[in-house]
Specification:
A hairpin with an 8-residue loop joins β5 (about 185-200) and β6. The strands form 3 sheets. This protein has an 8-stranded antiparallel barrel with strand order 3-4-5-6-7-10-11-12. A two-stranded antiparallel sheet has the order 1-2. Strands 8-9 form a two-stranded antiparallel ribbon. Helices cover about 25% and strands about 40% of the residues. With about 350 residues, the chain is of the alpha+beta class.
Length: about 350
């Protein structure tokens, strides 16, 4: 009987020990599962937090994690409930600024209609080229007609030289130049009409004036631009010498009785007046009018400077004139005019 009781106690103690071991093992397994669940839950929370931070730095995470424990068959179960996070609403765009009612924009100009297609391009090109050529030719003709031919007026003093100074002093001159200048070459030609009047020296008995009418044809050489340049002149001409006063003519005498010679003239039966040695064959061979004067050959040479502005030029010049009167009056007539004038192109 005692043996049976002891055997039953041993069996019961063994069963109790097995249950206790099983319960301890189950508890350890439950604890491990709970730790794993907690670790998963922590990782999930960090991932959700990082995503929420990237979406909006100013947004606040609304994730709630609910942890509950359940007991099933002696084991403790941990369950995490996760609430989905809604993405933050987009920030609305700012409203447009109110229209400015104080400034009225200018009206938009209406674009011009496009030109019709040109179906005669080659004809138009030919016409334009012809028009341009014609306009250029007309401009050249106009420029040539205004720029190369010219006329003018000059005046100044006239100074006697050589033997003419014996009886005459400085007088005055008037000149009308008419000419043509080449644009391509520094050459030109000029015709001028001149009048020189020399004053008689009353202190030596010459009381009348002496005048020279001349027409000259000169060549011209320029040095400089077309409008402003120095120039040289040289040419030939025709002159008529006329004496004005009572001392000229067949019976011409001097008011003071001063003569170069006192020999009697067999033709006029009068003394010859040499005008203080100016002309050995003076009276009566000096004409007293333009119609009675003899035309004499003459030549001249000189130069000047011309300054032009558009179609007008100012000039100053001087030339040496030689009139061949030796065969008539016994000596040649020489003088130098110095004139200032203007020409129109």
């Amino acid at each position: 009987m005692r043996l049976h009781i002891s055997h039953a106690c041993v069996v019961g103690f063994a069963i109790a020990l097995g249950v206790t071991s099983a319960s301890g093992a189950g508890a350890q397994d439950s604890t491990k599962k709970a730790d794993s669940t907690h670790r998963v839950t922590d990782s999930t929370k960090k991932a959700i937090h990082r995503r929420a931070t990237r979406r909006s730095e100013s947004a606040v995470s609304s994730t709630r994690i609910k942890v509950s424990k359940e007991t099933s068959g002696g084991e403790v179960m941990t369950r995490a409930e996760t609430t989905a996070v809604a993405p933050p609403a987009p920030t609305p765009a700012p409203p447009p600024p109110p229209p400015d009612t104080m400034v009225t924009p200018p009206p938009t100009p209406t674009p011009a209609p496009p030109p019709p297609p040109d179906t005669t391009a080659s004809v138009t090109t030919t016409t334009t080229s012809t028009s341009t050529t014609t306009s250029t030719q007309q401009g050249m003709v106009r420029q040539r007609s205004l720029g190369q031919f010219y006329f003018g007026l000059g005046a100044g003093g006239s100074v006697p030289v050589d033997n003419l100074r014996n009886g005459y002093g400085t007088g005055w001159n008037a000149t009308v130049p008419i000419g043509w200048d080449s644009r391509t070459l520094p050459l030109g030609v000029r015709v001028d009409l001149g009048y020189d009047r020399l004053k008689g020296r009353s202190s030596v008995g010459v009381t009348g004036d002496l005048a020279n009418y001349s027409a000259n044809l000169d060549g011209k050489v320029r040095l400089g631009s077309f409008l402003s340049h120095f120039y040289g002149l040289a040419g030939v001409g025709a002159s008529r010498l006329v004496g004005y006063g009572s001392m000229y003519g067949p019976n011409g005498t001097s008011a003071t009785g001063t003569y170069g010679t006192t020999t009697s003239n067999p033709t006029t039966n009068s003394s010859t007046n040499t005008y203080n040695g100016t002309y050995p064959n003076g009276a009566p061979n000096v004409a007293t009018s333009f119609g009675d004067a003899k035309t004499e050959f003459s030549w001249n040479a000189g130069g000047g400077f011309e300054y032009g502005v558009k179609h007008t030029s100012l000039f100053v010049e001087s030339r040496y004139f030689h009139v061949n009167t030796s065969s008539t009056l016994g000596a040649n007539t020489r003088f130098v005019p110095l004139i200032v004038g203007v020409t129109f192109h």
